[in-house]
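job 3f2a | input accepted
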Amino acid sequence: MKWNIKHSVMLSRAFIGFFAILLLAVDVAGFLNVSRSWDLEGVVKPSQLTWIRICVYACSVPAWAALWELWQLMGRLSRAQVFTPQTVKQLRIIAWCCFMVALISFVCAGGVHFSIIVVSVAAALMGLIVRMVKNVLEQAMAMKNELDYTV
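job 3f2a | predicted structure (151 res):
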């Protein structure tokens, strides 16, 4: 089987679906899992469990938004609609979702456990990478439009 854009989009959509299932599992069962596992390990105090739950569910909102935008973006790519303002808008939304998770995680690190700052840094880095890809795409769109007008 020769690898092509269709297969790549299908694989990307499969990963998006996988992450959606994981996120759903965290949303549905996260309440119980946090209570059971973190309490036993002594990582956090029982009084911090409510704070953890709030942070997990607060991070879930931008995560769902990012997954939805990624799903829509893969649909646009499968239709060869790459150099469009909507694609740039979707990348911008995804980047801001990452930054929101970074901010929420950073706030949670102070109230729960300092090691959560790793999640914040990772989410901020992902947001920065997506933002750079968005900027490159915007520049490529401008160059494409300029070339379209010269021919």
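job 3f2a | The radius of gyration is 19 Å.
job 3f2a | closed
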